[in-house]
Amino acid sequence: MMPAARESLLDAAYTALARRPWSAVRMVDVAAAARVSRQTLYNEFGSKDGLARALVRREADGYLAGVDRALTAHGDPRERLTATAEWTTSAARENALVRAMLTGCWSERLPSPALSAVPSTSAVPAQRRADGPLPSPGDFVTLVRDRALTVLAGPGTPRSDTADLARSCELAVRLALSCVAAPPGEGGVAELVRSVLQRPAG
Strand, helix or coil at 116? Predict the structure, then answer.
């Protein structure tokens, strides 16, 4: 099946989830919305749980792609971390699945696939990846911190500076996650991150 059709099915599932709880989302409706047969949907995802895993994996990948964009949007390291924190809070505000993944709080409305890998018999590479382990909130902290460190440290950065930078990156990520759980007041996440990272990293 073409990747475009898989994306259409995931879009249809995401749209359905915005309108009703996952338990009420029917595979036949997702297939109809994507204009493919129900058999095609099952061939691609295997089951409703497979579709849920693929949807969560796609939203996780989309969030991390946004992190990569935020980290390259500015020259100043502190502004890059601030942009990453702002993206984290806005992505969580606008996307219930991203919010659930970052906080570990899955509401009854959402699918909540096991984060551990499930046995995969799929011939579809994208589905085999979705059947692999899904990131936990702690995994996201590590993933974002390490991405930030890779972008900000650069080659030849002394080890002592790298350790300080890693702490700053992790702090920015954890601050953003705390703002997801308890939204900040005036000034938002950007002001919080800037005030904590007074000394420009690097």
Answer: coil
